[in-house]
Amino acid sequence: MFLRPNFRLTRRIPFNLICAVLIFVATSQAANADEIAIWNFNDSDLNVDHGSGTLTSNFNVANVLFAAGTTTNARLGNPAGQALSLQGGTGNANNGRNITFAVSTAGFTNIVVSFATQGTSTGFNSNQFQYSLDGVSFVDFNPPFTPATAFGAVPLVFSLAAIVGLNNNPNAAFRIVFNGATSSTGNNRIDNIVVEGTSAATETIPEPTSVFLLLTGLGSLLELKRRKWPTQKAQKH
Ligand SMILES: [Ca+2]
Ligand SMILES: [Ca+2]
Question: How does pLDDT run across 186-206, given as a tens digit for each residue?
């Protein structure tokens, strides 16, 4: 015997459930990290490629070059293209110099900076990552790092979630100070610099409306199951 459908319930429940689940899933996904600024260097310049930010350097201009990049840490389907390539320079003049990227984190928390890097044997082998809360004074974060000689599959990741002053900060800035180059053409490549965070607009729990829809949908499902049982039992007899 087939079950006679209750059209009022079956038409209403899927709509409520689908709406609630879609909103819930969308809210959950929106809480993931969002990219604020990305430099992929594929157009061989220091201008930001996605989002907003400003990258500057006090290297000798002749030693700021571009060379083959990587897809490691690439976002938005970006190809490997080019990477920033920084040389030691004549007399290793660029030891102690830096690249600095200023990125407003207004509207974001849990800031994370990541990038792919590699260095030649006479390139910069002691590089210090720093952050700034005011764009002027920079603070060391983590010990200096030594790049591998190839980009590899894993980027360097600096999770700055504990630095609450970087949250929602229009003056946030980040810096890599390069040291240890031992020849003029010794060099380090940097590619796919990503500054990301949790959007303040989406890190909140689901809005009351979506919670209401979810509860309504679940309640309707339970009501349907409760009503089905007597009907099924009745039709078996
Ligand atoms: Ca690239
Ligand atoms: Ca660019």
Answer: 999 999 999 999 997 754 444
